[in-house]
Amino acid sequence: MGNVTLVIDGREVSVPKDFNIIEAAKRVGIDIPALCYDPNLEIVGACRLCLVEVEGWNKPVTACSTRVQEGMTVYTETEQLIGLRREILQLLLDNHPNDCLTCQKAGECLLQEYAYRYDVKFREHDGDRRRALVDTSSPYILKDDSKCVLCGKCVRICYQVQDRQVLSFGGRGFDTKIVVDADLAFEESSCVSCNRCVTVCPVGALVDKRVLGKARPWDGDIKGVKCKACDYGCNFEVLSKNGKNIAVRARSPLKGRPLCLKGRLMTEFIYLDEPEVPYRKEDTQFVETTWEEALGLEGVLMKLSKDE
Amino acid sequence: MITIQDLNKIKEKTLKKMELRLRAKDEKTDIKERHVLICGGPGCHSANAEGIKMALEEKIKKKDLHKEVKVSLAGCFGLCETGPNIEIYPEGIFYAHVGMDDLDEIVEEHLCNGNIVERLVFEDALEDGKVKHVSDITFYKKQKKIALRNCGIIDYVNLDEYIALDGYQALAKVITEMTQQDIIDMMKEANLRGRGGAGFPAGIKWETAYKYHADQKYVICNADEGDPGAFMDRSILEGDPHSVLEAMAICGYAIGSNQGFIYIRAEYPIAVRRLEMAIEQAKDKGLLGKNILGTDFSFDIELRLGAGAFVCGEGTALMESIEGKRGMPRTKIYRTSHRGLWQKPTIINNVETFANVPAIVQNGVEWFKNIGTEDTPGTKVFALGGKIANTGLVEIPMGLTLREIIFDIGGGIPNGKKFKAVQTGGPSGGCIPEEHLDTPVDFGSLGRLGSIMGSGGMIVLDEDDCMVDIARFFLDFTVDESCGKCTPCREGTKRMLEILERITEGKGTPEDLDRLESLAETITQASLCGLGQTAANPVVSTMKYFREEYEAHVYDKKCPAGSCKELIEYFITDDCTGCTLCARNCPVSCIEGKVRELHVIDQSKCIKCGDCMAVCRFDAVIIR
Fold first, then answer.
1. What is the ipTM of this complex?
2. What stretches of B226-268 show up as alpha helix (H) in DSSP?
């Protein structure tokens, strides 16, 4: 495929012609803010933070959905764009709980990062807010609707696996929310706790419950590991604090692989100093189980040493 | 399967039967034969037009006139205000507000004795003791009907009557005499702009899809009409369904598609039934389906019913909905004429746009361009509503001024009230004040005034309407109908609505006005689809032309129109005669006063229902 050359914020860049502006900007170290964009997911243009100006075009366009063109001149941080981004971020913060002090996502939250970058603050108001519905039914995923920014990444990544497609949008307008199956709790639903959704959530609306309260990125170490449950090896992360491995979380599926609970539990079992009790779903309930059963190794003599 | 020769035979035969209706108006007649047309449009239908038809037929039979007098239901006459409406031909007499009790008199006097029942004649048709022919009534005189050409003339259940008035001749001509490029060039030259609201030239759209190579292409008719008060598409579909089917087939031929879909809202059950029937009739006659009129061209049409979301009128959300997904607009990475429905090249036009197509093919580009303005050739159907005498449906040549539409055709403001503004374009449009009433209407001119043509809603407001409250009303609609996909529309419109609610409740602050403007700018610039990009228009336009009303609410805590309940109080003046009527009618008993003495309203208890004002016979109760 041929390359095209364009100028982004005064910097010339040559990229393949099927690139969008966000990816082209990355090549020259320009990070265009976006909550709903993920190179591995369908582009939806929902958050509207990645608006950029293109010389000669009469309106700002989303950098995620606009392909590069030869000779294009793009501006990513004009006064107008900053004004729009600040207002959009303010709208999101006006509808988001002020919980960064204790939120598990703090330090890795994109909303927090952009609010800092564009100097937008929480403020008091007596307008309506998202309902604070928290789904605590699963031992693996915590879903807090009040923190959701409706980027829809979770829906899209869940949709990619044919036999899952558990998450979707429910409601309309201001009342829109992410629903599990027909608006069920995780434990009643067909969710298999693969945590794909957790890996893409840009805020603290979907978090790994087994990491909750254990460490945040600045007070521990994070090491990337490959899953050993099957030959593909999806990406996981081992979190450690004070020299002890305390939690495992899913990072990203390998192309064409779905991520799975079994792989995550096996990684926990292999790496963690004191792995928590595993759970399995029985009909519409999570019940405690044994490691042999959770890993599908009943009857097999387990010689796996934790040091390995 | 019929051929073009058969089509012409049907036309000749049926025309003879319709002759009375179409006869020139000054031809005198002594014959006893009559055609009675009953309006079957949405308004008259609700007012029991079908019951009237059955009763009338029965009475005619009793008088043994059923051989001479033919009764049919026709599409919308347009004058919904005066329904149920009846026209009698060949005299062209327009009877309004016809009730069941009036039928005997019409049969006895008019149909038996040939005397016009003046008492029932539409009042504007009476002049100097004479009864005017329907086409001479001011309401109709300034109109030019293209999209509605057959509405109110043909019996909508009768395909032959459609054929008699040149129906399917355009399709026959296109598929036998013209190339795909010919018909596209014709639409481009005619500059037929999309009547659904955006005004994009149909010909250019068609050409884009025609030139894009694909194994399958689709034609969609957008019949998801949803603007509050708009019912032009409904009237076309109910009164003349075949005109849309014919146009879709022409479009299919032009772009190389064999499959069309009509996406129609389920809230239009009558239109759905008539379309189903029309599709069946057309298929039976070989005017749709395989090898149309014996040619190689095949085209089929299916219906898809919307489930009640306004946003599904947005082209890409509509396609998502047809595909069985949640109706949310797509981000425009590709044009829908390249990748639309199921990622195939798709042409989506609105009902009224399609209804124009056969007429342009029949009458030619020059004819069409001579109507309307250079910016927008042709006509536009408007639904007149609000504070206007002739509520109803009108089709006017572009270039007529707003004043002519509202005061000549619409009959002005009732009850001697003063005109304040006209709201055009529904929730995406804006309010236009008196000073711009002489603007000739077309896509460009309304846009420059900060409003839009939109799908053709036209709501007239008088001195009693509060402009802040109007903006609040439309925003309330948008907030309800936002799909929730993009941030500015989902979160921003809600905040704007909250501010407007505060202002109308007398709790607004000067900062609120600034915040409204800033939010409006962000929502307009940053929203994903047309719904969001235009959502702020009702606020922006009212702030532009009626800023003093906003300021009165915010600074003086007053509603100048006397409409916002929190900001008004009912007060009894010295004109009070002490008749006690108001006190007896007050539902919360908050009016005190002795007989023949001045009465007083206890403001702390008053719920501002306005009953006292309505019952007072001395105009002693005022709003202040």
1. 0.93
2. 232-239, 241-255
